[in-house]
Amino acid sequence: MKGLPASFESPANEWYSWMPNPRHSPNIRVLMTLAPSNYPLGFKDTLAGGDDPVTWTNTKYKMIYTNMGHGSKILTSQQQNLFFENALLWLGGRKQ
Question: What DSSP assignment string belongs to 12-66?
Answer without folding.
Answer: S------SS-GGGSTTEEEEEE--GGG-SB-SSS-B-SS--EEEEEETTSS-EEE
